[in-house]
Amino acid sequence: DVKVTQSSRYLVKRTGEKVFLECVQDMDHENMFWYRQDPGLGLRLIYFSYDVKMKEKGDIPEGYSVSREKKERFSLILESASTNQTSMYLCASHLAGGPGTGELFFGEGSRLTVL
Amino acid sequence: GNSVTQMEGPVTLSEEAFLTINCTYTATGYPSLFWYVQYPGEGLQLLLKATKADDKGSNKGFEATYRKETTSFHLEKGSVQVSDSAVYFCALRLYNQGGKLIFGQGTELSVKP
What we know:
The structure holds two protein chains of two kinds. By secondary structure, chain A is mainly beta. Chain A is 0% helix and 54% strand. Chain A contains no helices and twelve strands. In chain A, the strands form three sheets. In chain A, strands 2, 5, 6, 7, 10, 11 and 12 form a seven-stranded mixed β-sheet that branches. A three-stranded antiparallel β-sheet of chain A has the order 3-9-8, with no helix packed on it. A two-stranded antiparallel sheet of chain A has the order 1-4. In chain A, a hairpin with a 3-residue loop joins strand 5 and strand 6. By secondary structure, chain B is mostly beta strands. Chain B contains no helices and twelve strands. In chain B, strands 2, 5, 6, 10, 11 and 12 form a six-stranded mixed β-sheet that branches. A four-stranded antiparallel β-sheet of chain B has the order 3-9-8-7, with no helix packed on it. Chain B is globular, with a radius of gyration of 13 Å. Chain B starts with a strand and ends with a strand. Chains A and B meet through strand 5, strand 6 and strand 10 of A and strand 5 and strand 6 of B.
């Protein structure tokens, strides 16, 4: 079965802390994504990666960075957390060049609260 | 720009009622269209999809038809169950954009027994 695992379901951090959100997929997918989910705004793309060590900005990259050192792992980094980054963060993966379904496989999400 | 607009929630229905969740889109070219569902405490999962005009996607009793002339992809189900209570997201994928999806704001559905 397809599996995307996000290491932390709930985190509470303080303003200014550095935060790491980890995501691992076991499907050998090339593409991985980080979205944030906020009520009334749906899902907004932060960053995505089409291959190891490659990354591209999404629609709301400010205040975030990412790392993809291995194919199966895609990390989201908040260099200095702020209260407006309190949100649900969703990781997803996608098989490049697949049957063209466009299907994303999502993790269960990481709910981050910044105090 | 490219975008997806869904009807606002929450939508509250009684069991066995008919469901429609409206979704319209703005996109260049001919996108593929998707409905994802998020059950409480879980991540999103694909519910159904349509890749070209007039295609009908269906799954678990849900249906949606890709209407190019009205740029719509409304989700319907004839008889909802309590277990259908979830948040539903409409999304589009532009041609040759791989897995990059543009999502609507989500519509929360609550079904009462």
